[in-house]
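Data card: per-record layout.
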Amino acid sequence: MERGPRSLPYLRAAAAGVAGLIVQRSGSSTLLRSYQTARLRALLRHSYEMVPFYRQRFQSAGFHPDQFRTLEDLQRVPITRKSDLRLAAEQDALAQDCDPARLIRYGTGGSTGEPTEVRFTRFEDLLLRVMRMQVMMGFGLRLWDRRAALVYSDGSHRTSLLKRLGILRNQTIHAHTPSEQMRTELRHLRPNVIRGYPSIVASLGDKLTDEDRNLIRPRFITTDSAKLTDLARSRIEKSFGAPVFDVYDCYECNVIAYQCPRSKQYHVLDASVVVEVLHGDRPALPGESGEIAFTSLHTWAAPLIRYMPGDLVERGVAHCSCGAPNSCLANITGRVQDRFLLPDGQTIHPGFLAASIYPLCPVLRSYQIVQEAIDRVIVKLQPIPGVQVPAGKLDAARRGMARDLGEGVMLRIDFVDEIPPEPNGKFRPYRCDVKNDERHPSEPPEKLWSRN
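The structure for this 452-residue chain is written out next.
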């Protein structure tokens, strides 16, 4: 068999991927589920026959692809964590009918402490990019729009053909660029659409002058790669006078879900990924939080089946009020490792503590909640310069967080001039610095669920 994306299985997968673009745009929920079932059946068989890593895992779990008939049968397939793939030899994690030398490779940022390399054929990579572009067009992107991406990638892997044709023009501005130079470049470009990390876009918005706002007038802004807090959204929309649409994505499969402009639920990109939300060892109910596991339908060279990237999300309603056929997520809560383990053995995600800070948001530029020890939590507040923080609201926030943390936890609130991003450029509104060996022995990190 010829090795590489021109082999017959990959040609079939390519045709099915193109069909997915059509199904995603015009299909019903029934058609989407049928499409997912068919793609999963083919992917599971391919992985069993061609990928030693998955063949061994399937056999150890007593699962054979012939047992897969409905989407519910996916729960019989073992979970795959980042650590599982990192420990596997590359020749075992890759399909034996592809040439490793011809794959496109990306390194993840490692914000979970586990940097990972992900691999695609050229067509797989292109298909995922086209699916992302389809999402952007749903937000209102036009072919002739000028786009600015405030990111940490130089974008050198992308073709300039479309740019030469004047279609979907995109200019990358490195996020480490000084704000004055960034504003100058944006004034020259006058982008119709801006994309970037929430913290980078919000910080830039704070520095815009009236002259900037006359020239930098995007029709809409998209954020991705980090959690978009309500405070960051408010700052961005106020500074740029444009709506913000959040995209939940990752290196491993590009777009997972994207925010509905009407309902604010996140539509799962069902034609690209099958998403599960797991609360312990069972599927989460609507409105319940859990850890996400996804199966990438169009990644065959290095499959990702029931893969857990380490994110906590809230399962959404069965059907969005906008009428879209997609399944939904209600909220992207944060990272699993950011959960706070409390002295009584229970856990809480700091996203719930942040609810007590929301009344202070009109006078804040940023905030961060850090657990320094099991019995010590520090809240950093960065007020808007020259604006007084209302004492009554501050006391109410302190009482609310102290109540949620429970007895035995020292809570301290610090006012700071700046909250810097992480070394990878992302801003983390929540952070747990408690080491694994300090955690409760009966509660391994991957099994911690919120007390709420």
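Known properties of this structure: Residues 1-140+219-335 form a domain with the Rossmann fold fold (CATH 3.40.50.12780). Residues 191 and 308 are 36 Å apart (CA to CA).

See the next section for split statistics.
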